[in-house]
Design goal:
This protein is α+β, with helices and mostly antiparallel strands and 569 residues long. The protein is 46% helix and 22% strand. It has a 5-stranded antiparallel beta sheet, sandwiched between helices. A 5-stranded antiparallel beta sheet has the order 7-6-10-9-8, with helices on both faces. Strands 12-14-15-17-16 form a 5-stranded mixed beta sheet.
Length: 569
């Protein structure tokens, strides 16, 4: 690098003043003498003025020589200082010719030969015989020449010992008078350790992500393979996830459930809203007995439910998660056990009461009938005898029902079409006076598989259901009876529907209890209990569907005894 020491401003001004005064003095004297025709003296003065100019010029020449020597010494000092500064840098520093890639200046850290010896940047840093190309690295000099702007690229260089190192190359353009890039300043920062650290961090991150993914996959596998239903929803109640357990328990495909409102899963949609209020107040609700609606309505699924809030990383509410276990079978078995215990106790009581009442009741009937025979029909007291006889007969019927209830034994089964059993039952009731204004709409499915049943008990079952249907309609209207197969011919279902007033909601859970009747004085509360007992002994189920003002339907499901084949008709 060239440096010129400039003279102070006052020295240049003094030179101008000396030369100007000498020229002015000589001119004035010479002009005056020449004007007065003193030519010899004028020529002498002109010579004298020239001599002064020569003397002053020689003096100025000697002074300029001293200043030049001082400038060269300053330049050399500055050059030595710059070399010391560059050599003290811990990273390579180069000045590269833009035309032939030769190194013009290099510090000690660069490890280059003496500048001017023809060494090139690509030979020094890359151990190559030709400039870098895009197939190896982006050449910073090419980029600087192209953009005329500083650039930064990453290269793999060889250090002084020949070991490969990752470096960050910084290139800065030096412009000529024509505005073109003539040289480039290049310095390189070693980023090998940073690269190694980044690589280690990347490996650690990849391992963490792999572990997280494996953990997530394991957790997802657990959630998918558990038999419990797990359903999550967002804050608006829309279903977000629906695991396989929920599909099995509730019958929905997750594609059909996701995006729908979670209230559709409940028999009573308002029940979920009440639950959400409790969750928002306390954070969660556990051990709640919820009634979920199966996709194949009106099947009801009893669920032991825990409902909790979901929160994001910031603790804000993100939705809800419900975890439930299907306890329908447990509930059924529990109810069946309670009912069995009730029936056993009621059976013993019924048999005991029936036998105790039967003897005095026979005497009452006998004397009441005798009084009626002895009393003329126009006698006012005859009506009293008729009331005694009628109520005694009603008591006898109750006693007979009690005896039938207590004598309910293990069924004696035979294979038969359920359609034939229903038809036989209807032949026993169609001709009776209470059913003269009742019509029957029969919808029997063809090719039903046979069931293995006690025909007598089945007839008693359907008679009780038909009689109840007729009573509910006031013995006017249509009773609809249908049959069909369910669950891939593993079950057969018979439904008996009336057009009556329906059963009040607060009485639904009690209609199968013994001695509980919705008919008032007309019923004894044993008919539906007997129906339930018969169905249970055959391994089936009975349930009821009812709506106020729209009638009631009883659905009896019985297991098929053997592989499906056409029934005997």
């Amino acid at each position: 690098m060239n440096h010129t020491t400039q003279r102070p401003d006052y020295s240049r001004q003094l030179d101008r003043y000396v030369w100007a005064l000498a020229a002015l003095w000589t001119t004035l004297i010479a002009g005056a003498l020449l004007w007065n025709h003193q030519l010899a003296l004028g020529h002498g003065l002109l010579w004298l003025g020239g001599l002064v100019v020569i003397i002053l010029g020689l003096r100025r020449l000697r002074q300029s020589e001293r200043e030049r020597r001082g400038s060269e010494e300053a330049t050399e000092t500055h050059k030595e200082l710059l070399t010391e500064v560059l050599d003290s840098l811990p990273y390579p520093f180069l000045v590269i010719d833009a035309n032939d890639f030769t190194i013009k200046t290099a510090n000690r850290a660069a490890g280059a030969d003496e500048p001017g010896a023809g060494a090139t940047c690509y030979g020094l840093t890359h151990r190559r015989d030709a400039p870098c190309g895009s197939d190896v690295h982006v050449c910073p000099l090419d980029e600087v020449k192209r953009t005329k702007r500083p650039v930064t690229v990453e290269h793999e260089h060889y250090d002084i010992d020949g070991a490969p190192r990752f470096v960050e190359v910084h290139g800065y353009p030096i412009f000529g008078d024509d505005g073109k890039v003539v040289q480039m300043i290049e310095y390189c920062l070693d980023i090998t350790d940073r690269r190694r650290t980044d690589a280690e961090l990347r490996v650690d991150k990849e391992r963490a992500e792999a572990a997280s993914y494996a953990k997530g996959a394991h957790l997802e596998s657990i959630l998918e393979n558990t038999s419990d239903l797990i359903v999550t929803s967002d804050t608006s109640g829309r279903i977000v996830s629906f695991n396989r357990g929920a599909e099995v328990v509730l019958g929905y495909d997750r594609q059909d459930a996701i995006g729908k409102h979670a209230s559709m899963l409940f028999v009573d949609p308002a029940e979920r809203e009440r639950l959400i209020d409790r969750v928002n107040a306390g954070g969660s609700v556990s051990g709640y007995h919820a009634r979920y609606a199966h996709k194949n309505r009106p099947r009801i699924v009893d669920v032991h439910l825990t409902l909790s809030q979901l929160r994001d990383a910031d603790g804000a509410a993100a939705g809800f998660v419900g975890i439930g276990r299907d306890v329908s079978e447990q509930q059924r078995l529990q109810k069946a056990l309670i009912q069995s215990e009730k029936m056993a106790a009621m059976g013993k009581l019924a048999a005991s009461v029936a036998h105790e009442i039967n003897n005095p009741l026979t005497g009452i009937l006998t004397f009441a009938e005798a009084l009626m025979d002895e009393t003329p029909e126009d006698d006012p007291s005859r009506e009293d005898s008729e009331i005694i006889f009628r109520e005694a007969m009603r008591c006898r019927q109750i006693v007979r029902d009690l005896l039938d209830y207590s004598r309910l034994e293990k069924p004696k089964r035979a294979r038969m079409s359920i359609n034939r059993v229903v038809e036989r039952s209807l032949t026993l009731i169609r001709g009776q006076a209470p059913f003269r204004d009742v019509s029957f709409d029969l919808g029997f499915a063809d090719e039903l598989p046979e069931v293995e049943v006690d025909v007598g008990q089945m007839q008693q079952l359907f008679l009780n259901l038909v009689i109840n249907a007729g009573d509910a309609m006031g013995h006017r209207g249509t009773i609809t009876i249908k049959s069909q197969s369910l669950e891939d011919n593993r079950m057969v279902q018979v439904s008996v529907s009336d057009e009556g007033c329906g059963i009040p909601p607060d009485e639904i859970d009690r209609i199968f209890d013994p001695f509980y009747s919705t008919k008032g004085e007309q019923g004894n509360g044993l008919g539906l209990n007997v129906v339930q007992s018969i169905v249970a002994q055959h391994g089936g189920t009975v349930r009821v569907e009812t709506k106020a003002g729209q009638g009631t339907t009883f659905l009896v499901c019985l297991p098929v005894s053997s592989p499906s084949r056409p029934p005997d008709r």
